[in-house]
Amino acid sequence: MKKPSQKKQSAIDYTIVPKDLAGHLFNVTVTVANPDPDGQVFALPAWIPGSYMIREFARNIVRIRAESGEGEARVVALTKLDKHAWRAAPTAGPLTLHYEVYAWDLSVRAAHLDQTHGFFNGTSVFLRVLGQETLAHRVDIQRPLDPSAKTWRVATAMPEAGARRYGFGVYAAANYDELIDHPVEMGDFELATFEAHGVAHDIVITGRVPNLDMARLQADLKAICETQIAFFEPETRRAPLGRYVFMTMAVGDGYGGLEHRASTALICARADLPSLATPKAAEPSEGYLRFLGLCSHEYFHTWNVKRIKPAVFAPYDLQAENYTPLLWLFEGFTSYYDDLMLVRAGIIGEATYLKLQAKTIGGVLRGSGRLKQSVADSSFDAWSKYYRQDENSPNAIISYYTKGSLIALAFDLTIRARTNGARSLDDIMLALWERYGRDFYNGAGRGVTEQEVEALFDEVSGLKLKSMFERYVRGTDDLPLAKLYAPLGVKLSDERKGGKVSLDAGIGRDPLGAKLTQVHEGGAAHQAGLSALDVVIAIDGLRVNGNPPNVDTLLARYRVGDRVTVHAFRRDELMAFDVTLQADRVPCIALSQAVAGRKSAAIKRPSAV
Are strands 243-251 and 263-269 parallel, antiparallel or unpaired? Predict the structure, then answer.
């Protein structure tokens, strides 16, 4: 007798319930209709795309069990294979895993749950069904029973599949990769929607923000989004998505963002958001500008890294490091364009833009690590160095974000100058989009290799740019920005005031005095034998305060070359150091318009320069 064939599963089904708000626990189930007959393996990702560090999210699974069958279920044995994965014993019919996830990481990378809100990335809560990742995935997001959550709503860019928009219920994704690329926020959040070139964009603000000027935020984000959409699709003005969500957690002090294909998760200081009580100004305040720059950065990632990807990210290996030497292109170039888009959108003027560039240049020149590590190596070592920085990092590494943005500037200025304005970095980005990004999620796209990137730069610009790659991308040379700026009438100068002395160390607070958070190579503290984490308690017999530190005030009475005695604790041992004071070595970079009426940099497309 022929056995009836097993019905093919159409989707992997999840439920997620905020079970214990005070205990920060999500209850999650995943049901597989057709588990692997040899024993189905489940694994939680070890990292989240966009944040390049192994985070071992599975450590937050508090307990887990498996059942099989419909109706009267029976227990199925689970064997843990490693720190991320479990195998269920072979079973016929539907297999369901029940597990609890501890969610108390208030960041954009993981999951957080309490009486004020719930938030999760799929990589933190949804076990992957190995071998069935390409199936459709559904998730039923259920309302918590806690009375404090009776008015909560749901915000996500994940398509509804039974749920009403902003409501609890069933949402759907085409596959596991899409499922984990739609973070979810739930709570009593502020909500506003605007359209950018015909596409709805939601603004979701969680956290208390008195007198939030949502109208200004809508107008500014609309200008930024429309500018970026038109940048990548100048003819069609077509966004690569049907809806976008800016989900923001406002806290007392915080900053960060993580990109997704149709949304971004952000965290910011509530003081950085615009207030109705603040008089309207021509340009944003420093804090608000920082927030808009963050939004611009993450939105630009919609194209650059979420669709234009390094080859090693297509697809991601979610259980191990994915090494690439190209993060300088995906993060650094995005860091270049985030502020540039604020200018092109009319949010800030040229003078403010130059100040932002000058600050970046000064930050890059501050650390001696720039002379030891290239941005290509920094990209490759992100997993072990950039995302695991310590007190010696300024002396050992370079940021592929900041120096990467200056490399983008150098390429842009070089291409514009050597083609007499006929080409620019914009053309490089558009070529990357057209060849590697536009059709990525349509099945026709693929990631780009390091060799293809370099060849494309030459092809599109019509120039030979290998020496720039060798010296500044794979090498550690300082960029000749003063020379590159000069033809545009911009002067780069270091405006350090003569005579100011410094220990040349990072200064932090400590109950006993001032903690040296970093000691810069070759500086006065280093030469005298002081080390990072030493706590300075006295300079020439005068007490050092730690809250706030008064080191600069005490040193202001001395001149370059003077010798002082510094007393400091190293662990629990008091030590004395003879310090010869040096001139402050912190760069104070300024960019100024030397020729009136000249465009300072790549403010507009070449045809408009």
Answer: parallel
Q: Identify the architecture of domain 303-495+590-609 in CATH.
A: Orthogonal Bundle (1.10)
How many other CB atoms sit within 10 Å of the CB of residue 429?
Answer: 24
Place of tokens 């020439």: 540
pTM of the model: 0.94
Mean per-residue pLDDT over the chain, rounded: 94
The residue behind tokens 């990467």 is 404
End-to-end distance of the chain based on CA atoms, in angstroms?
79
Under 8 Å between Cβ of 83 and 59: yes
Please tell me the predicted confidence (pLDDT) of residue 8: 53
DSSP class per residue in 461-480:
HTS--HHHIIIIISS-PPP-
From the list 160, 88, 169, the residue with the least C-alpha distance to 129 is 88
Calpha distance 482→200 (Å, rounded): 42
Is 12 within 8 Å of 36 (Cβ atoms)? no
Mean pLDDT value across residues 332-338: 98
Nearest one of 58, 117, 47 to 84, comparing CA atoms:
58
Q: Cα 512 to the chain's mean position, in Å?
A: 35
Q: Which fold has domain 501-583?
A: Pdz3 Domain (2.30.42)
pLDDT in tens, 363-412: 999 999 999 999 999 999 999 999 999 999 999 999 999 999 999 999 99
Put residue 311 in one of left, alpha, beta given phi > 0 → left and psi -120 to 50 → alpha: alpha
Q: Any idea where the domains of the chain sit in the sequence?
A: 11-188, 303-495+590-609, 501-583
Q: What is the DSSP letter of 327?
A: H
Q: What is the largest CA-CA distance in the chain?
A: 99
Min mean pLDDT across 167-171, 272-276, 354-358, 591-595 is at 591-595
Which of 200, 184, 203, 201 lies closest to 192 in space, CA to CA?
203
- Cα of 296 vs its chain's centroid, Å: 12
Pair of tokens at residue 392? 């010696």
Token pair 């300072």 is found at 600
8 A C-beta contact, residue 259 and residue 50? yes
What is the CATH class of 11-188?
A: mainly beta
Identify the three-state secondary structure at position 423: coil
Decide which of 490 and 598 is more confident: 490
Give per-residue pLDDT as tens, 71-80: 677 999 999 9
